[in-house]
Amino acid sequence: MKDKKWIDCPVCGETNSMVFKTDVSENFNIKDYGNLKINNIEGYYCKNCKDGILTKKSQNHINAAIAEFKAKKDAEVTVAADLISVDEMAKKLKLSRQSIHKMMNIGKIRYVFVGDIRLPLKNQKVSHK
Which Pfam families match (predicted)? Predict the structure, then answer.
């Protein structure tokens, strides 16, 4: 699905005020985790109120970066008994391994890093319908 081309600002109502910007950096304060700076964001930004509407690609990039940031922080305090393999999670949710990895990428399934391997957390509520 294509992104909408924004011309008028939906926030402040200013006409012809939206400008497409690329390579924008944003700082995010993630509750209980700290601050994260994400680069290479693109979207339409209002010249008047400075509010922005991100592209779907940028939103997915942000979700993946936040999920990875949380996973690295959680890896420091998570015990092995709280982890499950991707195969076991796929069987539990009746999904493919590929679907599990995709859901981890977009932040729908929480995971942690064990070395370079991503493992889902065992006890979590996952909505995949």
Answer: MqsA_antitoxin
